[in-house]
From TrEMBL:
Protein name according to UniProt: Glycosyltransferase
Residue ranges crossing the lipid bilayer per the database entry: 6-24
Membrane topology: Single-pass type II membrane protein
The keyword Endoplasmic reticulum appears for this protein: no
Keyword tags: Glycoprotein, Glycosyltransferase, Membrane, Transferase, Transmembrane, Transmembrane helix
Gene Ontology molecular function: glycosyltransferase activity
Organism, scientific name: Solanum stoloniferum
Cellular compartment(s): Membrane
Top-rank lineage group of the source organism: Eukaryota
One annotated Gene Ontology cellular component of this protein: membrane
Lineage, uppermost ranks: Eukaryota, Viridiplantae, Streptophyta, Embryophyta, Tracheophyta
Length: 357
């Protein structure tokens, strides 16, 4: 006797498997990609190289850190550079705008590094962006892979050029709000250089935020203890501009990384990339940080953890002026997020508004 009552449920099951696979990404929380041991060791060896190289750079008299060695009026001096670290998992939407930004500057004053998720096909960028890709690994939103990618960018830039003095993390959705020269002169103010003042890092560090406890426990209850107690846990925007000293601090760290690399259990409240850097720097050098980011973001009516994305009809000179305004003593230098099709409007006012300062 044929057992229909077994066959029918199994058929139903067979048919439903592809349906489940198809729907799973929208029903189930996204699975986190783990950081494999070989990937971890790869990064560690890069960090060790960068740390070792930095100490030899310091020994060579001609290549010293700008904050203590820069001399005004000397012809032999090497001017400090800014390292622009582009972290992306898509095309660099605003490449033409960034070309204009870099084109108006002295090519000896900056370096560009790009970390692009290798699983995504990206249109090779041109000009100053060509061949600026570093050895990249897969990244995923709201996961420790974004911390790894950022540390990888910092290490490459530290190792590549001892004159890189500041490190600015930029996403493909970011736009500049001022000219390169304005940004450079703001960061590496000659007054500060000549008075040998300590240079600060521009990184947002907040002690309070809704759901901070949820975010603290997103890797499991109490797993952050004892290295990171809740009162030391900080939050801040992922996009920062930090000094060479702080970049080294970040790649030298293993204590906090051991905790922050733990996979998120509650993915919706995890966002390790918004916690690791502010927590680490506020523990190691709170007075060396301004606690403000230079990258404006609009969280009004945010959906699913995404900030407001400016669309072409919103893009105007008034918007640029508005986005520059800040509550601190300096203006914002970058803003996000802009939809890729805002490019045309942005290019139209690049010379007359954005870079006119
Ligand atoms: C860069 O500027 C020069 C003139 O200063 C101009 O001829 C050139 O087309 C510009 N390149 C880009 C990519 O904007
Ligand atoms: C921020 O976004 C909201 C819409 O979500 C918009 O109404 C508001 O004008 C934006 N603020 C600025 C300063 O652009
Ligand atoms: C400045 O501070 C006020 C009051 O806290 C706030 O409403 C406003 O959004 C802030 N402006 C900017 C540009 O952050």
């Amino acid at each position: 006797m044929f057992k229909y009552y077994i066959l029918i449920p199994s058929l139903t099951l067979l048919i439903s498997i592809p349906i489940i696979f198809y729907l799973a990404p929208s029903i189930l929380p996204q699975r986190q990609i783990p950081i494999s041991l070989p990937d971890e060791l790869d990064d560690l060896s890069l960090f060790h190289k960068a740390i070792a190289a930095d100490s030899t750079f310091l020994k060579k008299p001609s290549r010293k850190h700008p904050s203590n060695k820069f001399r005004l009026g000397s012809t032999t001096v090497r001017r400090p550079k800014i390292a622009f670290l582009f972290l992306t998992n898509s095309d660099l939407h605003f490449e033409p705008l960034w070309h204009k930004f870099f084109n108006a500057s002295d090519p000896h004053l900056y370096n560009i590094y790009i970390h692009a998720d290798p699983t995504v096909k990206i249109t090779p960028p041109m000009g100053v962006f060509a061949d600026r890709f570093i050895h990249a690994k897969r990244t995923q939103r709201s996961s420790p892979t974004l911390i790894s990618a950022t540390r990888r960018l910092l290490a490459h830039a530290l190792l590549d050029d001892p004159d890189n003095a500041y490190f600015a993390l930029i996403s493909q959705h970011c736009i500049p709000l001022h000219s390169f020269n304005y940004f450079y002169n703001f960061l590496l103010d000659t007054q500060k250089l000549s008075r040998k003042m300590e240079f600060p890092s521009y990184i947002e560090i907040l002690t309070e935020s809704p759901a901070l406890l949820d975010r603290y426990n997103a890797r499991g209850e109490n797993v952050m203890e004892p290295e990171v107690s809740f009162d030391k846990f900080r939050v801040g925007s992922q996009f920062f501009v930090i000094t060479r000293k702080h970049s080294l601090m970040v790649i030298k760290d293993s204590k906090l990384w051991r905790k922050f690399k733990k996979p998120c259990v509650k993915i919706q409240s995890c966002y390790p990339e918004e916690h690791y850097f502010p927590t680490l720097l506020s523990m190691e050098d709170p007075n060396g940080c301004t606690r403000h980011t230079l990258t404006r973001v609009n969280w009004t009516d945010s959906v699913g953890g995404h900030p407001h994305t400016y669309q072409p009809p919103e893009v105007s000179p008034e918007l640029i002026y508005k986005l520059r305004e800040s509550n601190s003593t300096y203006s914002y230098m970058f803003a996000r997020k802009f939809s890729p099709d805002s490019l045309k409007s942005l290019m139209e006012m690049a010379d007359s508004v954005i870079f006119k300062d």
